[in-house]
Amino acid sequence: GTPTVQRSIVGLTEKGVNLRLGIVDYPGFAVSLDNTDSWTPILETLDHAFENYLDEEARINRESIVDYRIHACLYFIAPTGRGLKKLDLEVLKLIHQKVNVILVIGKADALTASECETMKVQVREDVEAHGIELFTVSQDDEDDSTIAQPFAVCASTGLIASGGKKVRGRAYPWGLVEVDNDKHSDFTRLRDFLLRTHTQELIDTTCQRHYERFRTEKLLEVTSGPSTDGDEASILTRIEQEKKMHLKKLQKMESDMEQVFAQKVRDKELKLADMETQRAQQLEDMRQDLIRQQRDLDRQRLEWEREKQEVQLQAAQAAKTKKK
User: Fold this and answer.
1) Residue 314: helix, strand or coil by DSSP?
2) CA-CA distance, 170 to 180, in Å (whole number)?
3) Which of 22, 89, 206, 223 has the most neighbouring CB atoms within 10 Å?
4) Separation of alpha carbons 74 and 12, rounded Å
């Protein structure tokens, strides 16, 4: 049967740090009697994410690239107490060079402690014997015993009473299994491994190893000759198209900027001409005002001289009359 692909986005916040986590789930994987090609949706999802990123990376404007590549694959193993099944080996061989594989034994509380440890050893031997590359941490990690694969986890959303407090876990007739207790489950180690201690290393490994391998293969396909699929445009053709579109966009922006600049120059010239006209009018008004003031002064001077002459004449006549 073909598994159903389910996608979701969750937001995590811890100590003021926000993390946007994308999850792709495949419920129903490997549960049918005939599981032929049941891994196809997994491979298509991985390749599609790389192809989308490659397309975005080939664009001229790459500032708004959203990374939807898958940086970790949690591959769950049934708690059989034995090693990997043939189907597990086939799928892991197909995906281990496309994504960071992290093996997880699910429902590990179905195993005793010794059975769980035996299964871990057997799984590691199977991985090594078949040349499967799991995600490994850098060699300078001081304590790799806490992050050695596979992780054995048990999970529960229910709360049980343990030691006078409520904890996540499961209650059995023989005792309690606490999800966050490192002695009972690797859940806490796995959570810290993914979201705290090795998050950036997972992303870096995707970029530097898996994506670069995919990118190299695609570029080699382009350089080796024309594509046989007429519906697929080559990467170089897309780059050239993007370049032409970007050039047209730049030319339009340049033309628009020139028009805006020319309009601003015209507006400035009109404003200066208007200011010059206003200044000339003001000067003319001042000149006319000065002429009026000059006329008024001349008239006042004439009146003053006439009055002066009249006074002098009256004074002379008064002096003659007095002599007589």
Assistant:
1) helix
2) 11
3) 206
4) 19
